[in-house]
Amino acid sequence: MESSDITTATTNSRSVSPSPSSSPPRPPVVLSPCAACKVLRRRCADKCILAPYFPPNDPLKFTTAHRVFGASNIIKFLQELPESQRADAVSSMVYEANARLRDPVYGCAGAICQLQKQINELQAQVAKAQAEMVNMHCQQANLMDLISMEMSKSPQTSPPHLQSCDNFMTSPYSLPSNLSFLDESNLGFWEPLWT
After folding, report:
1. 41-72, pLDDT tens digit by residue?
2. DSSP structure class, residue 43
């Protein structure tokens, strides 16, 4: 039955020819209703308050906000705000609705708490790293003070292990003759690594 109605409607529209005195027919302007009106299955008016914020090519945006807040509440929110703040309010509502659908108990407050926890952990890591850097700087300063004190002493009063280090620094290619750890008697207990 529907196909016969469609064929008669098309034949009737074809049989009507424009008169030569009238202007050529304008092509019909097809305005797509906004996503909100599509979801709500209602006619989209020219002054639809939802049309600028819920374009027809993104129905999921309105669907998620509608599930959480409801269409009437969204319209009330937008009517109470000045136009300059409505776009931000819609994006906030859509974000909150997505967060509420992901986490029905906490919503975006759960995401905020998670991010604050990460910030606190990272701040603790930064504080620990800064404390380690201060500690290393102090150790380096103490080491430099010890080295400068040892250097200021005369070489005769310096301990023998520092004298051997001084000797090594001045002539690194001459090895001392009393290297007892390289005796063959000490090398006997070492086992070969490969067999």
Report:
1. 888 888 888 888 888 888 899 999 999 999 99
2. P
Residue range 21-32, pLDDT digits in tens: 555 454 343 367
Q: List the end-to-end C-alpha distance of the chain, in Å, as a whole number.
A: 95
- pTM score, whole prediction: 0.49
**Alpha-carbon span 72 to 98, nearest angstrom:** 18
Angle at which helices 59-69 and 83-102 pack, to 10 degrees? 80
Buried b (16+ CB within 10 A) or exposed e, 139-149: eeeeeeeeeee
Cα 9 to the center of its chain, rounded Å: 56
Q: Which whole-number Å values give the CA distances from 75 to 33, 49, 58, 100, 160, in the listed order?
A: 16, 7, 18, 19, 89
Q: CB–CB of 42/16 below 8 Å?
A: no
